Amino acid sequence: MSSVPRTHRNIALIGFMGVGKTTVGSLLAQTLHFEFVDTDKLIEQRQGRKISDIFAQDGEPFFRNLESELCRELESTSGRVIATGGGLAVTPGNLDSLRTHALIVCLWASPETIYARVRHQSHRPLLQTPDPLARIQDLLTVRTPAYRDADLIVGVDFRSPAETARQIASSFRLGTPLDPS
Ligand code: S3P
């Protein structure tokens, strides 16, 4: 939790792959009449290629740079719900950047829930390994400190996207982040 008082012009959703940032984010944007931005989608549109192709052709560091540049660009925006790619909050500097304008909400799920949700999907290059569950557990261990640095952490193992969106909207309207996890 940050103790620095600041105004929240936006909401940024962070958290691991498969926790539902895009689904929850678009519901939340509708509820608040905010614009919805998905960093992965925006990067794909601008690059004119899929994230898996960016990773394959230019490597992960190139993709991380694109994410960091986009983060800086978003600092001047307002009235947006920003769904971030699962690794964006982990790159040094990006959380601090988001903190300058957004309420940062982490969607949290257990490795087993994440695995159940992503196991039949093939568009995430980091999970294309023989043992995706082990990969999820390893990445979560490394990423947990960054995810835990959010203003609000919402557990999604037993919450529907609509319920999660409602909960975040209430906290945002109250202006006092709660930790209901
Ligand atoms: C990544 C998560 C993906 C995407 C890329 C890398 C990560 O986004 O940015 O494949 O490092 O966790 P989602 O969290 O939307 O799947």
SSE order and pairing:
Layout: E1 10-14, H1 21-32, E2 35-38, H2 39-47, H3 51-58, H4 60-74, E3 80-83, H5 94-99, E4 102-108, H6 111-118, H7 132-147, E5 152-155, H8 161-174
Parallel strand pairs: 1-3, 1-4, 2-3, 4-5
This protein binds shikimate-3-phosphate (S3P).
Quick recap of the structure?
With 181 residues, this protein is α/β, with parallel strands linked by helices. Bound molecules: shikimate-3-phosphate (S3P).
DSSP helix count?
8
Q: In terms of per-residue confidence, which ranges show pLDDT below 50 for 5 or more consecutive residues? A: none
Instruction: Estimate percent helicity.
Output: 40-55%
Q: What ligand species are in this complex?
A: shikimate-3-phosphate
Question: Mean pLDDT, as a whole number?
Answer: 93
* Structural class label: alpha/beta
What report would you give on this structure?
By secondary structure, this protein is of the alpha/beta class. It has a single domain (10-174), classed as P-loop containing nucleotide triphosphate hydrolases (Rossmann fold, 3-Layer(aba) Sandwich), CATH 3.40.50. Helices cover 49% and strands 13% of the residues. Helix 1 (21-32) packs across helix 8, helix 3 packs across helix 4 and helix 6 (111-118) crosses helix 7. The structure holds shikimate-3-phosphate. Shikimate-3-phosphate is lined by residues 17, 21, 40, 51, 85-87, 124-126.
